[in-house]
Amino acid sequence: MKATNVESLFGLMDEAITLLQTEVELTYIEALSETLENLSFEAKAQQVEGLPSIEAVERLNSLYKKMNLDALDKEIIRKSIQLTFIKATKEDKLQMNHQMTPDTIAYLIAYFIGEIKKDKTEKLHVSDLAAGTGNLLNIVVAHLTSRGNEVTAEAVDNDDLLISVAANSGALLGFSEKIHYTHSDSLQELLIAPSDIVVSDFPIGYYPVNERAKNYQTAFPEGNSFAHFLMFEQNVNYLKESGWGIFIVPSDIFETDKSSVLMGWLKENVHIQAFLSLPADLFHKNGMKKSIIIVQKIGEKSLQAEQVLLGEIPDLKNAQKMQSFLDIFHNWSAKMI
């Protein structure tokens, strides 16, 4: 039976991934990456040095055909891929920095961008320098495209499996001509165009390459520097003057004994327009609580909002409170931006 919804498509994808995983002795995410690559290129299984077996190739091709991707809504495909990655996260015990940005947060960021960039005819270039599987960028690009904007984008990540998942997911979602994918350490010099908007769910922790970190003003004088400080600076480096950055950061980013390093740099380079705490129940550990920060790169057309929007985003499941919050953001952006 052919796939018709998220549940049936995920079931077929999971069966294909598990079969490939067993046949070729791969981790789940490795098999997911190869499955998406097969689906992106003529939906046919590839055999290398006799693996997978002829019988497995035939079974995989049958599963691919049943997936019926050409006839399915792109959102069904995106959500099904998301479910397979969530399974990979659990089965392969992926590190925190490799986990996918949740839909709820990604859609919220897409809404913020829509309120900030009100012109639906404007050509926009968007980038994510810690793209991971591409879920955040895919949702932002889809949102802006659906309302009429002509959108191009850059996705960069230093993990080969994650950027492969992102690129092949993008191909299945019809974004091959919109999004350019780069496998690179984002803190190296990048051959990408400056963006109107940058979004990112920053990796948290220490950056191990001190020789490269010393090129950044947010680096520490001694020892390893915070990756999220360096990523903040690098994202702004690839913003056009007066462009906008919307980032997911640790809620305590301005409360550590090293925060003065970041604050000093921010004051010289961006206007902080909003800092909004995400609901605590989105995170397993209180120490991992995160917030969304909205900044504008200083330029001729930039303007510091008279009132920086500070506060907490309510429980995303509470429709009434969320609508009230969205109204507050809409009114604030109309007056301040």
Automatic annotation (TrEMBL):
<dbReference type="GO" id="GO:0008170">
    <property type="term" value="F:N-methyltransferase activity"/>
</dbReference>
<feature type="domain" description="YtxK-like N-terminal helical">
    <location>
        <begin position="7"/>
        <end position="87"/>
    </location>
</feature>
<dbReference type="Pfam" id="PF21106">
    <property type="entry name" value="YtxK_like"/>
</dbReference>
<feature type="domain" description="DNA methylase adenine-specific">
    <location>
        <begin position="98"/>
        <end position="316"/>
    </location>
</feature>
<keyword id="KW-0808">Transferase</keyword>
<dbReference type="InterPro" id="IPR016843">
    <property type="entry name" value="S-AdoMet-dep_Ade-MeTrfase_prd"/>
</dbReference>
<dbReference type="GO" id="GO:0003677">
    <property type="term" value="F:DNA binding"/>
</dbReference>
<dbReference type="InterPro" id="IPR048375">
    <property type="entry name" value="YtxK-like_N"/>
</dbReference>
<dbReference type="Pfam" id="PF02384">
    <property type="entry name" value="N6_Mtase"/>
</dbReference>
<dbReference type="GO" id="GO:0032259">
    <property type="term" value="P:methylation"/>
</dbReference>
<dbReference type="InterPro" id="IPR029063">
    <property type="entry name" value="SAM-dependent_MTases_sf"/>
</dbReference>
<dbReference type="InterPro" id="IPR052933">
    <property type="entry name" value="DNA_Protect_Modify"/>
</dbReference>
<protein>
    <submittedName>
        <fullName>Class I SAM-dependent methyltransferase</fullName>
    </submittedName>
</protein>
<keyword id="KW-0489">Methyltransferase</keyword>
<dbReference type="InterPro" id="IPR003356">
    <property type="entry name" value="DNA_methylase_A-5"/>
</dbReference>
